[in-house]
Specification:
Layout: E1 3-7, E2 10-13, E3 18-25, E4 32-39, E5 46-51, E6 58-60, E7 68-73, E8 78-83, E9 92-100, E10 118-119, E11 123-128
Parallel strand pairs: 2-11
Antiparallel strand pairs: 1-3, 3-8, 4-5, 4-9, 5-6, 7-8, 9-10, 9-11
Length: 129
């Protein structure tokens, strides 16, 4: 079992930066791929970025590539999402998620929400114009 707690959200002006953190409890975090998803008001939750167990593979949705960076520190059981050049359309609740990988998984982490059984409670990011 993995429990996830996000932090770092807040209110920022367009063009600003925030760094989200996701602290995981449990001993299996090193065996988990980790992802970030977001949900804006009135919209479905969508994939943002994901990182493999060792950090060697990362994937991003097109709208954040080049602005956001996902990373992890397994020694601290923590995943991060560095968000730069924020836009009002980035306003959403951001969720950290994780899944335990298997030997049959490829190197690249999964983008599908259905693959992630472990979720945090979310942290709000609001970007003002």
């Amino acid at each position: 079992q993995v429990q996830l707690v996000e932090s770092g959200g807040g209110l920022v002006q367009a063009g600003g930066s925030l760094r989200l953190s996701c602290v995981a409890s449990g001993r299996t975090f090193r065996s988990c791929a980790s992802g970030w998803f977001r949900q804006a008001p009135g919209k479905e939750r969508e994939f943002v970025a994901a990182i493999s167990t060792g950090g060697g593979y990362t994937v991003y949705t097109d709208s954040v590539r080049g602005r956001f960076t996902i990373s992890r520190d397994n020694a601290k059981n923590t995943a991060y999402l560095q968000m730069n050049s924020l836009k009002p359309e980035d306003t959403a609740a951001y969720y950290c998620a994780a899944y335990v990988t298997s030997p049959f998984d490829g190197g690249s982490p999964d983008r599908r929400q259905s693959r992630y059984p472990y979720w945090g409670q979310g942290t709000q990011v609001t970007v003002s114009p």
